[in-house]
């Protein structure tokens, strides 16, 4: 009978236990007496202890608007500064004339008044009491209606439109800068005498120092001589000097208040004549301005 054979059957493999094995503490190693001490074990991190409170890290109170009436102090401070600036302007501008202010460039003044005697009227018209004259009424241009005496007058000419153009002295006081007084050549050293309609207290003087007329596309201001310096004189013997910039508009100069019935204008310097085919060898003044009030 044949021998029956049986296959060898391997024993079943047992699955690993899924339960984790807790780590075991390292075995205590014997330490000698000379071994350094172990560092203390750090406790677990706790955010409640390691972080600062939010309000200590980022203070949002500083971004809030100013509360209460604190803003009122800033408003009052600004108002005081504005008031102080206005007061300083009033102090430094004691003249009080309702006229245009002096140009910042092109004008200078030098007092040449004699030293007053005791009890006499000083160059500004002040008496021995020390008070300068003020006049009465509103400040106005005293050159309007005044009489002008000049060293000479150029003859009339005909303009490009065929119109006759005169250059009379009275045109310096007509308020129209397109008209002018004109005299031939260099007028240096000549004197213009202005007799006011009535005595006044003068506080500003000035003039348009050339022929400020434009017609048919031609500017006659650079084509004639321009006055660049004059000396203003008054009845009490005082005088001031004024220089002018190259611009065809009235240039005023503030002077110490002086009571006078006449004003003299002595021309001390002029420009060369105009160049080119339109150049003219004439000295011209378009307007004279004498600001003041009627004498009291």
From TrEMBL:
Keyword Transmembrane helix: yes
Pfam family, one: NADase_transloc
Keyword field: Membrane, Transmembrane, Transmembrane helix
Biased composition (Low complexity): 1-18
Pro residues compositional bias, start-end: 19-29
Region annotated Disordered, chain positions: 1-47, 100-137
Residue ranges occupied by any NAD glycohydrolase translocation F5/8 type C domain in the UniProt entry: 164-290
Transmembrane segments: 71-89
Protein name as annotated: NAD glycohydrolase translocation F5/8 type C domain-containing protein
Species annotation: Nocardioides pini
